[in-house]
Structures are given as structure tokens and as C-alpha cells.
Amino acid sequence: MSAAGAAPMRAVVSLAERAAARSVDHVALDGVAKIYNPGTRQPVEALAPTSFTIKAGEFVALLGPSGCGKSTLLMMVAGLEAPSAGSIAVGGKPMTAPRPEIGIMFQDPTLLPWKSAIDNVLFAFQAMNRPVALHRDRAAALLDRVGLAGFHDRKPRQLSGGMRQRVAICRALVHEPELLLMDEPFSALDALSRDEMNLVLMNMWEGRHRTALFVTHSIREAVYLSDRVLVMSRRPGRIVEDVRIPFTRPRDLAVGETVAFNEICGHLRGKIERMHRP
Amino acid sequence: MSERLRDLALPAAFAAGLLLLWQAMVLAFHYPKVILPAPTDVWLALSANAGVIWQQAVPTLRDTLAGFALATVLGIALASLLCFSRTLRAAVYPLVVVIQLVPKIAWTPLFIVWAGIGWPSRLAIATFIAFFPIFIAMMSGLDSTDRSLVRLCRSMTATPWRTFWSVRLPASTPFLFAGLKVAVTLAVIGVIVAEFISAPEGLGVLILKSAAQLQTDMILAAIAVLCVLGLACYGVVHLGELAVRRWHGE
After folding, report:
1. B153 interfacial to chain A (CB closer than 8 Å)
2. Contact B134/B176 with Cβ under 8 angstroms?
């Protein structure tokens, strides 16, 4: 990667940044639960009362099987859904509606088909009623950085699935959000593109540590990307394990070949399997 | 033969074949010209009266385009309005759907009663007939906007107006054009019907007058010109649709 030369200096800066930030809870969930169709004959408890905090600058993965309520949890942190019980605070303020200081990536790239790649990135500003022209250079630089140089003017239909998700990363980051929320953003990609996207994401994230909450059902992805992995049980979801991931940053894909990495993955897999035993 | 050539050549050859058959039948069975003139007779009537026919075609085309334009504005405006208010939508939409089930031609005499025999009634009739397909298409376009795009807007704190203007409206344009294609042909029908009922000029008037004088070749000549006008209008809308599809990256 071209960023390798700058890596040591960045690591120093980011370590200092993170040490200072560690003391602050950026995201705090207190007894948050979600019940769909409450008061009807078939209420669905999607999420059992859940509490945890995320420090500023921390990358946390939410790992769990499909339908365990992890996406629901992320949508509530984003302010897109209201919890049925409990409270969520982001940056010390209760979360009641979406906020501009949050960047979000969904399972699908959700690009506007009539806009070019760069205009899709800039749509973040358009949506917030902020001037778009001022940020064109930054959007272009971001697209270059995720490997889309020369594709700025392509429409989404002319891009591959991986390329579209790269555009979506840029759109989530272009307004420099303090909190980045990602809902299984790479689950629709093949294994190779997925590894590549993990690298791209790490490269982007390690440049400037934002707080990140990443929902996934891939154990390796969770361990590779995160500082902490929260394991969720089946519906109604609750957090059954909180594992710290010790690997130094910046990480490359080779960390996935180490014994320690595979031991952690094995431990998490064991947890999930035990949980699923009837 | 390339596919494109085949798609053009086959229908053209079929149409030419039908014209030849028509010509041959008239020559073989000697139908009276009043009953069925030969294609060559129609062509002669057309070239001999080109000036008159063109003169009559202008008001018809003008009223068609005006009615179509007005219907487009009204259809988009009402659909957009209903997109913003659930209450208004619940009150208005079913009624509009019911009204559009009634044969709209049946309403035309009412417009004459209300708007008189001048151009306002012709414009109103054309607008009325062309309005419904545009409105319905626009409604379904706005309704079928990808929910995930709307959620994206919400996550980025977009106002409802911003979401409408930047996402719902552009997302519904392919639907809109499907409605516009239907509407532009209906607008021609509306104008002709209005001219049949009451008008000082126009191709509809020319057809009625020719019928009264048993000039069947003139009727067919006027219909031929109407076909060309209708096709031209449809073609322009179709080009617009292609442009929109290209804009959507297809």
C-alpha cells in the first residue's frame, strides 16, 4: 500500500489521540431494548435490554448470527429507529434523531443511480443543505484513496459491487463524521473483494481515528477490523461476550495468518456455537 | 441482417405490403371512390390540398401540445403535493382513481357548457384526458422510490423537501415518461373530440366537413397527417425517455 511509508508516524499520532480519547464514552447504551409490534398478539422481541459503551476513537464490532437484532441496534444508534426501552447517548447527548456528525454505511451501497460516483459522495453535503462545490476536491481525494481514480464520473450501474461500496465509504466519511456506523457493509461481496474492502476501510480509518461501530456476521472480519468485539446471542439479541483485540495498528491482512488471531477467532466461534446448542 | 435493420425493415415492409394490397383490391374490385379510395387517391388529395391541410393541422397541433404541457404540469404538481401529505393523499387519491375509471370522453360536452366553444374548452378537454396517465404514473414513481434511498436521506438529516427534490423526483422520472407516452397520444384524441363537438378550425373540423361532402379521400388524408403528428409527438417523448434512462446510467 502506498500509505505504508507514512504508517509509523501516523501510529504515534493516533496512539496519542486515542490515549487522550479513551477516557470519554462516545456512545453509551443503557438498557436499550427493541420490541416490534408491541401490544399486539405477536410482539417480536428483537433486542433484549442491552448496555455497553464505546470509547471515543474505538473500533467496535458487533458480531452475531443473522436476525439477532444487531442491525436493529445499529439503526437505533443512528437515530433511524427509536428504542422500545432504555436510552442511547452519543457524545453525551441523548439520541433522538439522526445527526450530521454521524456517517453511516448500509448493507447495500444505496447510491443514487443518476449521479456519478463523485456526485454520490458529495450527496452527503447536498442532503445536509451544505454547499457542495467547496468539497469537490476532498471528495475526489477520497475516491482516489479508495482506488477509484479514473472512475469519478462513472454512474453506479457502470461500477462493480465492490466499487459501489467504496463510493459508499467515501460518502460516509466525506463530511468527517465523528462516529462511523456500518451495517454489514461488505456482506454482499465475494470473499476476495471483502478482504480488499477490509483493507480499504482500515486504511481510511487508521488515517484518522473515528469512533466506529461495525455490524457483521463474519468472525474474521470482526477480529481483523476491531479493537473490541461484542458477541450477540440469537433473538432476542443480547451481548454475551466482550473481547478485546490486542493487535497493533496499522494492521495488514497478514495478521489474519498469525496464531493469536486464529486463537481469538476460535474462541469466538466456540462462544457462538455453545450459544446455539439447544 | 442486423437486428436493428430487421426491426425497422420488417414493419416497413409489412405496412408497404398492406398498402399494395389495398391498392390492388381497389383496382380489382372497382370500389366507388366515396367508399374506399385507393392509396394513390389519398396521396393525390393530400398533395393537392397540402396548404389547406397544413393550415388545419396547426391549430390541432397547438392545442394538443398546450393540453399535454398543462396536463404534465398539473399531473406532476398534484402527485407531488399528495406525496407530502398523507391526509391529503388519503382523501384525494381514491377519488381521482375513480374519476379516471369513468370514460373521459363522456365528460367533454360538459366542458363545452362550462368553457364555451372557444379554445379554452378544447384545451380543457385535452388536458383532462391527458392528465390521468401522467398523474397515476407520477404517483407510482414517487411511491416506488427505493426505501433505502429515503432512509439514507433521513440518516443524513435531509429535510423532506430536500429528499423530495434530490431523490424522489429524479427517481420517479422513468415512471413519469411511461405516463407521458400514453398521455401525448390521449391529448391528440382529446383535441380531435373537442373539434368534433365544436371548433372553427382544425383537422377534426376538416374531417367532419369532408365527411359531410363525401370526400373520403380528404378524410383519409387528414387522418394520415394526424398519424404523422401523433407519431412525431410520441417520438419526441420517447427521445426524452431515452435521455432519462441514459441519465439513470442504463
Report:
1. yes
2. yes
**What range does the domain containing A259 cover?**
216-278
Residues of chain A neighbouring B247 (CB-CB closer than 8 A): 114
Residues of A in contact with B153 (CB under 8 A): 127
The residue of chain B nearest to residue A173, with distances taken between CA atoms, is: B156
Give a yes or no: residue A278 inside a domain: yes
Please state the CATH superfamily assignment of the domain spanning residues B39-247 in this structure: MetI-like (1.10.3720.10)
Distance from CA of A67 to the nearest CA of B (A): 18
Residue B149, all three cell numbers? 434511498
Q: How many domains does chain A have?
A: 1
Would an 8 Å CB–CB cutoff place A169 in contact with chain B?
no
pLDDT tens-place string over residues B38-73: 999 999 999 999 999 999 999 999 999 999 999 999
Chain B interface, mutation test: which of A108, A114, A180, most B Cβ atoms within 10 Å? A114
On whether the pTM is more than 0.95, the answer is no
Instruction: For residue A36, list its beta bridge partners.
Output: A44
Indicate whether A67 belongs to any domain.
Answer: no
